[in-house]
Amino acid sequence: MMNRTTQRQSILNDLKNGNTITPIDALTKHGCFRLAAVVFDLRKEGYNITTVSRTKNDGKGKFASYKLKTT
User: Fold this and answer.
1) Considering only CA atoms, which of 39, 33, 30 is closest in space to residue 65?
2) Which among 11, 39, 60, 67 is least surrounded, fewest beta carbons within 10 Å?
3) DSSP helix, strand, coil percent of the chain (3-state; round to 5)
4) What is d(CA 58, CA 60) in angstroms, rounded to the nearest whole number?
5) SS3 sequence of 25-46
6) Is the pTM of this model over 0.90?
7) Any idea what DSSP says for residue 21?
8) What does DSSP assign to residue 12?
9) Cα 52 from Cα 29, distance rounded (Å)
10) What is the pLDDT of residues 7-55, one digit of tens each?
11) What is the dihedral of CA 38, 42, 43, 46, to 10 degrees?
12) Measuring CA to CA, which residue among 57, 59, 65, 60 is closest to residue 24?
């Protein structure tokens, strides 16, 4: 059986590498439709993840961007 990285671990690795992640990143890079739920679980495990509210390019909506705070 092949050792597969879970969506959660893949997202955590992305954050640990200093990347900011948005819901569209999570979907395209990790196949994850529920990024907020993964972030919620990671926070419960003690990871300090910040949320920044961003405005869409067309100005007609907002979305969240997440980053792992290191210090």
Assistant:
1) 39
2) 60
3) 40, 20, 40
4) 5
5) HHHHHHCCCCHHHHHHHHHHCC
6) no
7) B
8) H
9) 20
10) 999 999 999 999 999 999 999 999 999 999 999 999 999 999 999 988 8
11) 180
12) 65
Distance CA 53, CA 65 (A): 6
Q: How far apart are CA 46 and CA 58, in angstroms?
A: 35
Domains located in the chain, CATH noted:
7-68 (1.10.10)
> What tokens were used for 43?
């926070």
CA 68/CA 6 separation, integer angstroms: 18
Query: Which pair of tokens denotes residue 10?
Result: 């893949």
